[in-house]
């Protein structure tokens, strides 16, 4: 790109042209005194020389002139202008020649095109009157110089200057030229400065530093002074001290606002500075917004115990969120960002399950992966993580990256395990109850299973993290220290039924989110936040837009954003959990009441059964005693008397029948059976029938442990506890 000549260069060129014109004048005067010897010399000079008469016919031309037209001097001599040149060009030449002939005044520096067989040639011509010996003008003498190359260079220079003018006047870049000193003064301002609200003439002649932000002026001024001192009077061809090529600074626009400019600075002609600047205010604001967003993201992930990871399947490298490493007790640099390193912290028993879930997703068998697994903490403890991930695929469907999140769910797992242990204990107690309690327990167990299924369905339906603040499953919101909402995510909208636009700018009280009993608790929370203290998790009852109530577990964390202290709140809907807890408490209370009632009934039955057994035993003893004391002695006496055969047979039958009548009573009241309880007698009868312990337990609706307890008591009471005798065989022998 050609450089625009300076004023000094143009002045030198003009002087050179004037000098050249003077030389041509001297040549003209010399030609007046030309001799035949000088004619030979003229034929060898590079200048094109020609003589024409008053009618425009060529009297003579030198060799360079003829060569330019690709002719010989003799071919041109005697011919008119119209014979050599096109008609319009010949007419122009003739008119110029006539003016010189008629006025007697030379014409100098005529720049005009000449058509030659090889194309157009530009010449610079001086024409002077051609006089005879008497001083009469008989024609002209012309001296032409081929300036085609110069004309082309000038045309290229004009085109270049026009192009640069158009670029300068139409570019969106802010272009300025200022003096090269400690307080640069604007000497050129491009029209693009209107973007700052200024007309170029409003800035010309003014110090550039006056428009800079005070902080930027304090940074740039010492550097500028140092550079000016080091560069003073140094030739342009020499390399001066290092200078800042790119700088950023703030300038004030016509409205008084500060705009960020990114500027490239170059030196021009050793005495000026060229500034080419871009307005990067929007970029700066975007960078600031990005920093704020990253800060908000970091706060959200810390508060929610969430870490993000990005696995490059082609290199096996994995980006691990520093917060993810911190959740395991490590600094960012202590765990290398590589899959093999991260895999070392997965619990050994869960590695295969984790990889199987990932493979199923990568092979397209599952739309996304979600898995709870264990991780090894630095302190030796085991932490539970909920991992969610989604693969990014190329145009062919091949997975190339996997993006995912890990959420620490250890506390939730512990709560679930504690709840499960409580359920197991409750089931153990219920198993020992009656059939009615067992049925109630089965209903409760079914309810617990349904609740687990509901919780699992809820976990599976949660949207995968996209933007943690916006798409978190819990309600995230920001409010100021007066309780006025600043922002909220979609979960917050869903929790309380208000659109985001309805929330922003209003307080809890204005929205009537709290019942009267919850207002003092909320005021206490805000008071702690004003002192910079976090709160929660605390339980609150919220009133939704439609008037329904919802239970929420809320944690708050004071933070600073853009110099303003705000409160980050995380609310979790625990309405179903509260309802489940209330239902569980109600069922436990009902079971306790039924248990007490049944124990009282069982006690009464035991008393009645005992009394019945006692009455039965007493009756049996009386029957046996009466027969033996009141009947059998008389039969023995009758047998000793003289009886005929028939009488003796009747007495025998009578004695046999009496023995048959009292025989069962005698066995029932034997020393072994008299001490058995009714329940033990039931068990003994079923043992005699060949029933197993499991079958007896099912028939009597008792546990196997209870049947075993009765069997041990029976063996002890009938005297075979320490013997290897079969219980059924022994009982059959007693019968």
Question: How would you describe this protein?
Answer:
The protein is of the alpha+beta class and 735 residues long. Among the domains are: 7-155, PAS domain (Beta-Lactamase, 2-Layer Sandwich), CATH 3.30.450; 171-285, Beta-Lactamase, CATH 3.30.450.20; 317-408, PAS domain (Beta-Lactamase); 410-461; 468-570, PAS domain (Beta-Lactamase), CATH 3.30.450. The chain has 26 helices and 20 strands. The strands form 4 sheets. The protein has a 5-stranded antiparallel beta sheet with strand order 2-1-5-4-3, with helices on both faces. A 5-stranded antiparallel beta sheet has the order 7-6-10-9-8. A hairpin with a 5-residue loop joins strand 4 (119-131) and strand 5. The longest helix has 66 residues, at 575-640. It is rod-shaped and about 220 Å long. The protein starts with 6 loop residues before the first helix and ends with a helix. The model is unreliable at 232-244 and 668-672 (pLDDT under 50).
């Amino acid at each position: 790109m050609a450089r625009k000549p300076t004023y000094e260069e143009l002045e030198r060129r003009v002087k050179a042209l004037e000098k050249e014109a003077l030389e041509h004048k001297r040549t003209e005067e010399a030609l007046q005194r030309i001799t035949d010897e000088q004619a030979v010399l003229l034929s060898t000079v590079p200048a094109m020389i020609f003589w024409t008469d008053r009618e425009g016919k060529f009297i003579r031309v030198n060799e360079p002139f003829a060569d330019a037209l690709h002719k010989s001097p003799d071919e041109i001599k005697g011919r008119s202008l119209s014979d050599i040149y096109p008609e319009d060009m010949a007419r122009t030449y003739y008119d110029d020649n006539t003016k010189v002939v008629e006025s007697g005044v030379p014409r100098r520096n005529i720049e005009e095109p000449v058509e030659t067989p090889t194309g157009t040639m530009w010449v610079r011509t001086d024409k002077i009157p051609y006089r005879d010996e008497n001083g009469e003008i008989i024609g002209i003498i012309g001296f032409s110089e081929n300036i085609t190359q110069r004309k082309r260079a000038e045309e290229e220079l004009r085109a270049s200057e026009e192009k640069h003018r158009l670029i300068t006047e139409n570019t969106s870049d802010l272009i300025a030229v200022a003096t090269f000193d400690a307080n640069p003064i604007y000497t050129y301002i491009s029209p693009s400065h209107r973007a700052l609200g200024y007309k170029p003439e409003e800035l010309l002649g003014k110090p550039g530093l006056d428009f800079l932000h005070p902080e930027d002026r304090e940074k740039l001024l010492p550097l500028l002074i140092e550079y000016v001192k080091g560069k003073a009077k140094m030739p342009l061809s020499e390399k001066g001290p290092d200078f800042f090529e790119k700088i950023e600074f703030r300038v004030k626009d016509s409205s008084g606002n500060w705009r960020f400019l990114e500027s490239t600075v170059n030196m021009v002609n050793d005495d000026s500075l060229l500034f080419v600047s871009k307005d990067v205010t929007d970029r700066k604001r975007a960078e600031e917004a990005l920093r704020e967003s990253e800060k908000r993201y970091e706060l959200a992930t810390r508060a929610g115990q969430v870490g993000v990871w990005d696995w490059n399947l082609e290199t096996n490298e994995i980006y691990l969120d520093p917060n993810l490493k911190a959740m395991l007790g490590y600094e960012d640099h202590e765990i290398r960002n590589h899959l093999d390193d991260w895999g070392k912290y997965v619990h050994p028993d869960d590695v295969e399950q984790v990889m199987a879930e990932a493979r199923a997703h990568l092979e397209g068998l599952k739309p996304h992966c979600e898995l709870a697994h264990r991780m090894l903490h630095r302190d030796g403890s085991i932490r539970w993580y909920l991992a969610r991930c989604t693969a990014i695929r190329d145009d062919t469907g091949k997975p190339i990256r996997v993006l995912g999140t890990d959420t620490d769910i250890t506390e939730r797992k512990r709560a679930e395990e504690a709840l499960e242990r409580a359920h197991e204990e409750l089931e153990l107690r219920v198993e020992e109850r009656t059939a009615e309690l067992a049925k109630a327990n089965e209903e409760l167990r079914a309810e617990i299973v349904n609740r687990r299924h509901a919780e699992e369905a809820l976990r599976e339906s949660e949207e995968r993290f996209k933007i943690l603040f916006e798409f978190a499953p819990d309600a995230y919101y920001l409010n100021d220290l007066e309780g006025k909402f600043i922002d909220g995510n979609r979960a917050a909208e869903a929790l309380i039924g208000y659109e985001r636009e309805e929330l922003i700018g209003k307080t809890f009280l204005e929205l009537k989110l709290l019942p009267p009993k919850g207002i003092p608790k909320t005021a206490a929370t805000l008071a702690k936040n004003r002192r910079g203290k976090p709160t929660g998790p605390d339980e609150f009852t919220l009133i939704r837009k439609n008037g329904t109530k919802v239970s929420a577990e809320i944690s708050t964390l004071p933070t600073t954003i853009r110099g303003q202290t705000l409160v980050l709140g995380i609310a979790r809907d625990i309405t179903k959990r509260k309802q489940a807890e209330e239902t569980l408490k109600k069922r436990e209370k009902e079971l306790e009441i039924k248990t007490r009632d049944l124990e009282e009934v069982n006690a009464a039955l035991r008393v009645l059964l005992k009394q019945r057994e006692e009455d039965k035993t007493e009756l049996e003893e009386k029957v046996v005693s009466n027969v033996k004391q009141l009947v059998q002695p008389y039969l023995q006496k009758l047998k000793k008397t003289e009886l005929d055969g028939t009488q003796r047979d009747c007495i025998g039958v009578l004695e046999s029948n009496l023995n048959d009548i009292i025989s069962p009573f005698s066995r029932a009241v034997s020393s072994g059976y008299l001490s058995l309880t009714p329940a033990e007698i039931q068990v003994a009868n079923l043992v005699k029938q060949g029933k197993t312990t499991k079958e007896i337990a099912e028939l009597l609706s008792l546990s196997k442990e209870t049947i075993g307890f009765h069997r041990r008591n029976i063996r002890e009471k009938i005297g075979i506890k320490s013997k290897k005798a079969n219980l059924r065989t022994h009982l059959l022998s007693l019968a």
